[in-house]
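To: structure subgroup
Subject: Chain for Friday's discussion

All,

I'm putting the inputs and outputs inline so they're searchable in the archive.
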Amino acid sequence: MWPTLQGSLRMATRPKTSRFLCRWKSQRAERDTIFALSSGAGKCGLAVIRTSGPDSHSALVRLAGKAPLARTAALRRIRQPDSGETLDRGLVLWFPGPGSFTGEDVAEYHVHGGPAVVSGILNALGGLPRLRLAEPGEFTKRAFQNGKLDLTAAEGLGDLIHAETEGQRRQALRQMEGELGALYQRWSQTLTKALAHLEAYIDFSEDDNIEGGVLVQVEEAVASLAQELETHLQDGRRGERLRDGIRVVIAGPTNAGKSSLLNQLCQKPAAIVSPVAGTTRDVVEAALNLNGIPIVLSDTAGLRETGDAVEKEGVDRARQRVLTADLVLAVLDAAEVSQRPEQLTALLLDVLPANDPTHSRPWLLVLNKADLLAREAKAVLEAACAGMGPSPACLLSCKTGDGIGPFLQTLGERLSDLCGDPQVGSPSPTRARHRLGLTQCLDALGRFGHYRSVDLALAAEELRQARRQLGRLTGQVGSEEILTLIFQDFCIGK
């Protein structure tokens, strides 16, 4: 039976080219041909209109008269199929499937970007039989369904389109190129091999056809994989933080200068600044790009006891934001702290969440209004900060701008620690979907260890469950609901 087992392993790992070609040929005759504007809308110098599907070639001939050589640009007069009226003069390209982005026959029209030109060509395509306007993300969805990229790569492509910072671009590009999917695929192959060996042991161990060390090898492989999964999950949510933005919350007592700090970081009057205590009563948010790292900055109400119902709601929201922050900027009035430097730690703890059991939430102490300090008071305050140990503290003045440069450097270092370098080390999960699937996979491996000494058949079922969870991440196992959620955020034409 071992040759059969080895053959099944080869089937699980062999290239998918032949199966892909068969699937492509069968789907090619069944699907509609879709079209859409793939470049940005509005007036522009160049617009790209794309079609994908079995009628792409005939549509190209109807509009451009003759299809160019594959993957070669040709200048053509693009006409209205019925009347022969010239719509524009531009470049056309022809990509026969399966050697295209979607795996289907694809044609592209590179035309002038005026709204009338684009509208005319889209209307001409829409008037042809068996052509329809693409749905959001349908081009990429077809590429996934035709085996041109896995689900994590498709997600990376979507993230690349929406990337606004250098860090997001680097992470998305790495995921789009398949590094995350390749990692999950390797783990899936490890589970496939372990499961095949375990089932062989269950079926044939009594016939003395299976070596006694096979079960030990399975246990070692599963234990090693579980350790890799734990390490992968213990990344501090770096990938998700970089994709979604690091949540930075400015918190502190009233009149400490929190709104002034927000305005300094935003370089505009994003929040109202007033000498009246309690001016800020709600959360004011701003999205920023700091050295290629996206942050969502939140200014909050001053923390104090109050009888005002509206302000109390603002204080409650502020404390809730602190609890969910990735980084807390604890802002204190340097002039007030200098009068009682021995209470600096207590004042800081009043800002940080008291119900955080580990007290490990990242924070950065900001001592504002340094311009009001005499030289001796400043020295005392710096000594008090040094007495807190290696924890970061920044002395600055939002009014004069003194100390803002060193503060931004320290803040950048803290942000880099939180999201890491997306180009270094193993790729990180970038979505809650990834983390949930990996956690469920790890749970199944833990149950395998339990059932190992109870019932090997149940242990094998847990390995199947673990492999199924990994398959859902790459799209080998999934549902239409998951695909809809992933591709619905893509723009039409991609």
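Points worth raising on Friday:
The chain has a mean pLDDT of 86.
The CA atoms of residues 34 and 134 lie 5 Å apart.

D.
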